[in-house]
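Dear U.,

For the methods section draft, I wanted the exact inputs and outputs in one place so we can describe them consistently. I've listed the two proteins in the order they'll appear in the manuscript figures. Please don't edit the token lines directly; just add comments below if something needs changing.

First protein:
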Amino acid sequence: MCTDRRNFLRLSAGVAGLTFFGSELIRADNTDLETSQQRETPAAIRKLQRMISDVTPITPEERKARIDKAQRLMAEKKIGAIYLEPGSSMFYFTGMRWGTSERMFALVIPARGEIAWVCPKFEEERARELIKFGNDIRTWEEDESPYRRVVEIFRDRGLRSGRIGIEERVRFFLYDGIRKEGPSFEFVSATPITAGCRMFKSPAELALMQKANDLTIIAYKATRDSMREGMTQDEFAGNCSAAFRVLGVQGGVFVSFGKYTAFPHGSSTPQKLQPGDVVLMDGGCGVEGYQSDITRTFVFGKPTQRQRDIWNLERRSQDAGFAAAKLGAPCEAVDAAARKVLVDAGFGPDYKTPGLPHRTGHGIGLDVHESPNLARGDSTPLATGMCFSNEPTVVVPGRFGVRIEDHFYMTNDGPRWFTEPSESLDNPFAGVMPMD
């Protein structure tokens, strides 16, 4: 599917106050790191409890049904097989997690016949421990061609020519090697197959995403309740990461204070919290691989009237987008409705600031960002099982920004929220489960 924004932010130039999975932190300097390690965990976080005992993983039967659907789609679209390397799509179909390196480890799903794996010979025993689907494992020694193994799989499935789908995250050198080894094949995008399966969530997937969203709101509220004047972004983000760990998941957040909230994905400038600052926190967690991605914006102390007005405008924009999410409507209709509220209020137009500089939302599932998108130009019809963020942002450069982000999924009766949107600037965590 699409690029994981959390990885993008983690790998981009050091964004202060960015905390992500486990102990993986980006910090402004070592002094802040030492101070945060010495500081006692806030009471609001200590009182949280582990809350994942009711999580039900995706069953082998559901994964087998996903492979069957992919094969049906391949037959319909006249694609003989699809090639995947480790990542969210491989996990989606097989439950397999494997790192990427210069050595090929791959999955081939043919339109007809058994799936097959390609693995370095010296990794075979470990791979067999982890592989739950398919017994056809083709190995290659260090002086042999893994690309030949892939083409041998195609031919053993009766393919001599025709179309082969390459999953969108496959690195070029792997595609190039396969192409040269199998010049009789036409190579096309596998996205109609992978996205054609993944964009429609099952009840089991929705349940995992619901849990991830519920835990995110709980962690966020505990983090907000732990704010103090003078705290750094790192301390704030570290508190949030700690809250997720107590709840039993890995998660994190990036946070901006004051005028830096006008940077949609944060600033590298170190910041300390002061009374009157707008606070924007954006992140989430994963449950059995399924992601949440929630943003809350509020004020530390007493808001100004301007802050209230912009926050309320943002909330109306989010509501308008949700109301436009009708079965059969194009995805871009949601963006148009949310953006119109802002333009009518004198912001924009289009992507200009002050206003909304990005799309209104994105798909979500195993990746934080998946197809399709609530963006101008995406005409994909909204359908049952699709999941999206709804996050129009109001950016006022040099002053502050407001983003309220919640996610919804499409049902036979229309859209339904995973989380109850913020009630007001003063109560940004409506619908949080009581912890006492």
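Second protein (the one for the lower panel):
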Amino acid sequence: MDGPADIEGGLALSVDLRGETVTRQVGWRARRHAGVIDIDARGAYDPLDFWDPVYARKQNGIVLDPDEFYILASREAVSIPPDFAGRDDALQSARR
């Protein structure tokens, strides 16, 4: 892209609901009562102590609990400059 990005109204991304070829994993759901971590201790923790894997269903979909925190992969590559911040907002799906 040449020139500054026009993201005034936001940037829509799609979630990869196909997942990895073998496992069909599409993301992670945070465990509710995991312990506090030291963010400076890289590699010191087992991710499964804090996250549960989320797998795609046979129809390439997932059901999200609105009271849970998820990390999902987008189909598009995203790079946010260090002097900017990113935020995700819930959008209603166009497909039902």
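Candidate sentences for the figure legend, describing the second protein: The radius of gyration is 16 Å. Strands lie at 25-30, 51-55, 70-72.

Thanks,
Y.
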